[in-house]
What we know:
Blueprint: H1 4-22, H2 26-32, E1 40-42, E2 45-46, H3 48-55, E3 84-92, E4 112-126, E5 129-138, E6 143-159, E7 162-171, E8 213-222, E9 226-235, E10 259-261, E11 264-270, E12 275-280
Antiparallel strand pairs: 1-2, 3-4, 4-5, 5-6, 6-7, 7-8, 8-9, 9-10, 9-11, 11-12
Amino acid sequence: xxxxxxxxxALGVWLLLSPALAQAVPSFARQTGLECGSCHLSWLxxxxxxxxxxxxGYTLMKTTNEERPWVATGNDGPPPKLPLAAMVQLxxxxxxxxxxxxxxxxxxxxxxxxxxxxxxxxxxxxxxxxAFTQWTYDGVAHHSSIDNVDLRFAGHTKLGTTEFAYGxxxxxxxxxxxxxxxxxxxxxPFASSSVAVTPNAAALIDGGLGQxxxxxxxxxxxxETLYAxxxxxxxxxxxxxxxxxxxxxATDAVLxxxxxxxxxxxxxxxxxxxxxxxxxx
Length: 281
């Protein structure tokens, strides 16, 4: 017979894995007609197809002569007009001993809770313009607010025989624009319990500014080899408050002026994009 501790361990492993799978937003699959594995190397890292899709501003869409529905629940039909998706995360935590600890820090120990429910609008808006937008309900704090937002305008051209992709992004979380999905906004661990003990210290870029700032950036991929992006972030106040709608403004970070952000990477793909390597900063 499974003991309570083993039951929680098994449930914890399942819960840790299932949210990670859910984060491959099916809106993109419905829009392109591709399986999720066509864009992802491993959850949530992007392969060459996924990177090209993100570089292109989430605008790639399968062609169809059929009438497009407003929403869709499968990949077989024409792409929907409203690329919507949803995600549910559950959490269960078991701490062996809380003796001497403040009991208010463990209000849901040994209980399964709805950790997060998210709605996404993710995909093409116009020919050169697309978006990844997320609104999240926190089932532990019983509060909803805006989550990751990445609005993109993108294009591509040729300089002689050299491919040149370019674009601009407006987003509310430094690193959410990462085309490799390996930096903090998308990096491992993909999900963790919001009722468990967590580290007290982290780099500011590791979630310290998410949903509290707004940034404008420009990016380019030259000859499928050199990737560069530069952006500036400021506190999302005034006209930009929508980028932190619903967050606790009393505890949000406040930037003095603009904070710069840049990634720079050299990449190489071979075997028709089945393999790739990248080094960057």
